[in-house]
Predict the 3D structure of the following.
Amino acid sequence: MTSNVTAVSYGLNVTPTGLEELRSVLASHGAQVVSESSPADDRYQVRILELALPDVTAAALAALRRSVADAATGDFDTALVPAGLRAAARKLLIMDVDSTLIQQEVIELLAAYAGKREEVAAVTEAAMRGELDFAQSLHARVAVLAGLPADVVHSVRHEVKLSEGAGELVAAFKAAGHIVAVVSGGFNQILEPIAADLGLDYWQANELEIVDGVLTGRVLGAVVDRAAKEKYLREWAAAEDIALEHTVAVGDGANDLDMLGAAGIGVAFNAKPAVCAVADAALNMPYLDAVRHVAGV
């Protein structure tokens, strides 16, 4: 019997009782467990079940994902991943940046220098929940930066911290010969050194306008919104001759929804409820490198 879908459970407490509940849900959909394994990690637990499913159409897999999510099998999450993605010789990992690759929202760090952090944070939260148009909200938030010296950008660079496991995740994908990209509604001036340090293959964000050493409160060119994120995913996958079915997208906000939906599997990382509700998988712990177990890297 050959596995055609893999169930990857991960969390701080993957209990035997929870796993039994998961197996029950899987069995109700006709899934047969081909094999099981437990990769070692001293920060969180992982359990991998190779499954044979009678129906692996997109509709059947979506229904199974809903059943697994609704079962709420304990303090862990389970991703259901097509075997073809996990076995692919070359994959593309594409990630959001703010609150995904990094721990902070850069626009809020910048706004703090203008005394507007709380005001901007409230708008950011609403935009990430999908309550506001992202491009309009970005222009409004960037406008509060007008008049700040460009040196604040350098100061913010030093405040930015990678999410736990982010460096390990990128290194694992790169070492295995895969492609790693990030696309951000944030800013190139912050992302460029991060991308260089991590050795990313592709990256794109918005460009803050700076004139005579001062932020103008505007961005240059088209805003990187949810449609643009999906566009870059498709462009970069095509450039690398990687099928969309072999791509993994990770994000946390409404701006990531199109990208998550277009990828082979979309992972909601400590995401807003609206994102978790439609993503293929959810990751609700701080360790971003758990994505490597989902992808089979």
The radius of gyration is 20 Å.
